[in-house]
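G., the chain you wanted modeled:
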Amino acid sequence: MKVALGVEYDGTNFCGWQVQPEQRTVQGCLAKALGKITGEKSKIVAAGRTDSGVHAIQQVAHFETEASRSERNWILGLNSNLPDDMNVTWARPVDDDFSARFSALNRSYRYLIINRVSRSSIHANKMWWVFAPLDIDKMQAAADMLVGHHDYSAFRAKLCQAHSPMKTVDWITVTKQGDCIAIDVKAQSFLHHMVRNIVGVLVPIGAGQKPVEWATQVLESRDRAQGGITSPPDGLYFINVEYPQQYKLPVVSAFPVVW
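Predicted structure as tokens:
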């Protein structure tokens, strides 16, 4: 049978999702826990690979198994064998044609910034501390210029393995609550470091260091060297994946608890 899982994790002490030799990864910990309760070596496929330090509220993965368990027992069995900084939030048998990666209609990320003079001990490793005041209206105006179907080469990491830099971004929204700023980005798929590089352009614009039009200039340059910094992984959350309704997968809260 094929089983889909909702996976939540604090990425601070993980070297990303994908298994790497001698490294602590989310996929590696999940595979180890799964092996303990099934006695099998299962291939685990995720909706998206997150980098070192990046968090997930709703990562979705699937695996195939000969074992038969109830949804509740999959959850309890896996969580009893997982470390404290990750857990399974739901489990659901799915049809053979389901793929956590290829069946996804879109993916959503949220980037959190704490914008104040003093750093935060509570939100360390969970939000990017930016002490310069940020104008979210300017950031939103710049974000609007990056929405649509474009060549996002200027927002692509050097080692990105995607076949094409062409992507379609459905929306980018910038909102603020108190000292917290959230940047939400939704697209069918993303390039490596794409969201963090978008944030790296929006922040200098919000701080008044660059004009709003700079976002378009960076996009049209198709040159990563023309962009801003790659923002830290601490503030990035993989918050949701949408699938066709036929699979009837659960929906969890898309909001980190700090928001």
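The longest strand covers residues 166-177.

Shout if anything looks off.
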